[in-house]
Design goal:
By secondary structure, the chain is α/β, with parallel strands linked by helices. The protein is built from 9 helices and 10 strands. The longest helix has 24 residues.
């Protein structure tokens, strides 16, 4: 993992995204690509009609021009390799268009209002097939030493685990946490054995399904174990089956910890 893709847009979550991306890029000794997105207004009006949509887009372009100038000045003094591309698009389509050669994408988690970053992150995770690091907008510094893997034994979680081996190798402690609901799935012990072959030694913790939602159990485990971030995939089969309208969307909406999500 070397190529970090960062959504740049002048919103309340930008500073947290930037700090996370810089910390991540330094940790992996990688390259940071900034995608400066001029977001199309929610109500698109043909510019040639003289409608209000054109004025809104002009305002957005000017705001992002100033934002780029500020951030490029800061990045010039950071000790990371970086470059910048500009696009005019919806936030998720702008990022997706630049994601083909990205190893990981940095976004926000529970930011409400416009843009709703929870929705943006969900769309990008599902469509990019890349791990997404979604951080709370209050994040000041990203640490990678304690990792909780929210294991459901399905392909999406296994894919995310494999894609992030180089990040997990930076950790001092890894816990693989599973809620057992009786479904056939890859056992967490197998995931631990896989990691051990990469010289990553994880502890496994399995709890029984008690009827609560998986996100509630994951949050409870995190409150006790205090990871630096959570790694998870889209939840799969059995009683715990949910889509991005369920477990993952709720995790994005209320997680206190950075999430690495994959599909």
């Amino acid at each position: 993992m070397k190529n970090v893709l960062l959504l740049v847009h002048d919103d309340a979550g930008q500073e947290a995204r930037l700090q996370a991306a810089l910390d991540l890029t330094r940790a992996i000794e990688g390259h940071l690509r900034c995608v400066g997105v001029t977001a199309l207004p929610a109500l698109v009006v043909d510019e040639y009609t003289g409608g209000g949509g054109a004025l809104l887009l002009d305002d957005e372009r000017e705001q992002e021009r100033r934002n780029k100038a500020r951030l490029e000045s800061r990045l010039a003094h950071e000790d990371v390799s970086w470059d910048w591309i500009d696009v005019t698009a919806r936030l998720h389509t702008g990022v997706l268009g630049a994601a083909d050669l990205a190893d990981i994408i940095v976004l926000n988690s529970g930011l409400e209002g416009f843009p709703t970053m929870r929705n943006v992150a969900s769309q990008i995770v599902m469509r990019s097939r890349r791990p997404v690091l979604a951080v709370p907008d209050t994040l000041e510094h990203l640490t990678l030493r304690r990792v909780l893997v929210a294991w459901d034994g399905q392909a999406s979680c296994a894919n995310t685990l494999r894609a992030c081996v180089s990040l997990l190798a930076l950790a001092d402690e890894v816990e693989i946490f599973m809620i057992r609901d009786g479904s056939d799935r890859t056992e967490p012990r197998e995931a631990a054995e896989y990691l051990s072959r990469h010289d990553i030694h994880a502890n496994v913790r399995v709890v029984e399904d008690d009827g609560r939602t998986p996100d509630a159990r994951i949050q409870e485990e995190c409150a006790s174990w205090r990871p630096d971030y959570i790694l998870m995939g889209a939840y799969g089969r059995g009683r715990l089956t949910e889509t991005f309208g369920g477990v993952t969307r709720r995790m994005l909406g209320k997680a206190e910890w950075p999430l690495i999500l994959g599909h």
